[in-house]
Amino acid sequence: MKKLKVLVVEDEMIQSLYLKKTLIALDCEVVSCVTTGKEAIRSAINYQPDLITMDIQLNDEIDGIDATHEIQKVINIPVVYITGNTDYLHTERLQRTRYLELLPKPASRGQISETLETFKSAYSSIERKAVAVS
């Protein structure tokens, strides 16, 4: 199987570096690390990764949940939320997106590895179609 292409969306530099190093160690290709919702949308459409790790609180007016909505209007890319925002308001909003997992920060290497294995086992059945934009 080819390496999974992953887009990391995280506004905390230390967490972003940790995710990047962990994903590379787990044999993934990190296509980009971005810190804002706008960059997340642009990068997801440009790189078309297999998977996105998404923080909820980002460095602009577009949070991770809204960025996920915008991305998934255009292309079906699965998302794993890795966030410190696990309160009811946020979890209720993210239920309206197509996501694989919600991992609390800091996510351990074991949690990330297990999530990737779950994704890989279902990977061949996931259909990623570009959505017609009118």
SSE layout and pairing:
Elements: E1 4-9, H1 13-25, E2 28-34, H2 37-47, E3 51-54, H3 64-74, E4 79-83, H4 88-94, E5 99-104, H5 109-123
Parallel strand pairs: 1-2, 1-3, 3-4, 4-5
Helix pairs in contact: 2-3
Q: Let me know the largest β-sheet.
A: 5 strands, parallel
The overall pLDDT, averaged over residues, is: 87
Q: What's the number of domains?
A: 1
Provide the structure class: alpha/beta
How much helix, percentage-wise, in residues? 40-55%
| Biggest β-sheet: strands ordered side by side in the sheet | 2-1-3-4-5
Gross geometry: globular
Written overview of the protein:
- The protein contains 5 helices and 5 strands.
- The protein is of the alpha/beta class.
- It has one domain: Rossmann fold.
- Strands 2-1-3-4-5 form a 5-stranded parallel β-sheet, with helices on both faces.
- The longest helix has 15 residues.
- The C terminus is likely disordered.
In short:
The protein is α/β, with parallel strands linked by helices. 43% of the residues lie in helices and 21% in strands. It has a single domain, classed as Rossmann fold (3-Layer(aba) Sandwich).
Keywords for this entry:
single chain, alpha/beta, globular, Rossmann fold, 5-stranded parallel beta sheet
